[in-house]
Amino acid sequence: METSFEQARMLFLEGVGHYEAGRLEQAELKFAGALALAPGRPSVLTNLGAVRLKLGRLEDALAVLEEAIAREPANAEALGHCGTALAELGRTSEALAHFDRALAIDANPAALWTLRGSALMELGRREEAAASYREALARGGDAELLQYYLAGLQGSAAPPRPPRHYVERLFDGYADGFDQHLVQGLRYDAPAVLMRRVAQQGRSFAQALDLGCGTGLCGPLLRPIADRVIGVDLSAQMLEKAAAQRVYDALRQADVVEFLAASGETYDLVVAADVFVYVGVLAGVFELLAQRMSAGGIFCFTVEESESEELVLRSSLRYAHSEAGIRRLAQAHGFGIAAIERRPVRQDQRRPIPGLFCWLDRL
């Protein structure tokens, strides 16, 4: 018995080492081995659940985390992880109850207050969500992220851009099943609408740039009319999906502004479908594209429409831009307006989101 316990302890410690080093598959094997030698230990169940959560195996994580809580009801760490799994499975009310139980045991972790705020936000309880985010901020949480959340909730001055790690994690998490959800669930047709007008010109292009290419919905539409197609996205998981389409000549993982600043190439077609909602201030994009685009080139994109201010961060944590702001940027940076159409960019809870579809010519 003692030998088995010592073996389990060694496997557990090895699992912790692998977990901290980011070697998640190895960590899972070690924790599973430790659990086989010491069944039912809450610490092992909790860590096994945590690693399965990071691996995206939500149901498997939930099973061992619930067992950990059953054996140790005051296990705040297991409650927090269990709440996270439930939230990602769409069981938001249950997730909130677990976060509340965890914080009743230990109110210090800022991450739990942040998760609680996000659950409240999902449930439409905006004032409570803002209070939870403020609590997280007071307890040393991610200031950049929390201020971004609060700006969206409270309608205060919009930060110029979202936190990079927020966007990267968001779309890494969306990669699996993204196309089906976006096209079928949200009735998203921006790439087709943008490219239809471009294709009607009957032109061919030397080099097309797909800014924020995601899983590559624009790629097959660009391929027939461009000699070379380049895709750029911040999410590595999205780029893996885009690469599988085999329509891009090159794919780059980068922030769109950073990519344009570093690029020495020239483009005669640039497409940005449903991208600028996660960019914020567009002055840098316009300035850099003015340097990177050849005369006569086409720059087409969508934005969610703000009918008041030039830039608004909505409670959806997506930026909206005004037509007046787009026109001002175009004039300031040497672009002519070929067309601007008002039409929904997507649906949200079965309601159409007003948008602007813009086609600009590089003068």
Average residue-wise pLDDT = 93
Structural class computed from helices and strand pairing: alpha/beta
Gap from first CA to last CA: 80 Å
The name CATH uses for the topology of the largest domain is Rossmann fold
CATH architecture of the largest domain: 3-Layer(aba) Sandwich
Taking all Cα atoms into account, the compactness measure Rg is: 24 Å
Describe the model.
It is a single chain. Helix content is 53%, strand content 19%. The protein has 363 residues and is of the alpha/beta class. The chain has two domains: 156 residues, Serine Threonine Protein Phosphatase 5, Tetratricopeptide repeat (Alpha Horseshoe); 194 residues, Vaccinia Virus protein VP39 (Rossmann fold), CATH 3.40.50.150. Strands 1, 2, 3, 4, 5, 6, 7, 8 and 9 form a nine-stranded mixed beta sheet that branches. Helix 5 packs antiparallel against helix 6, helix 7 runs antiparallel to helix 8 and helix 15 packs parallel to helix 16. The chain starts with a helix and ends with a strand.
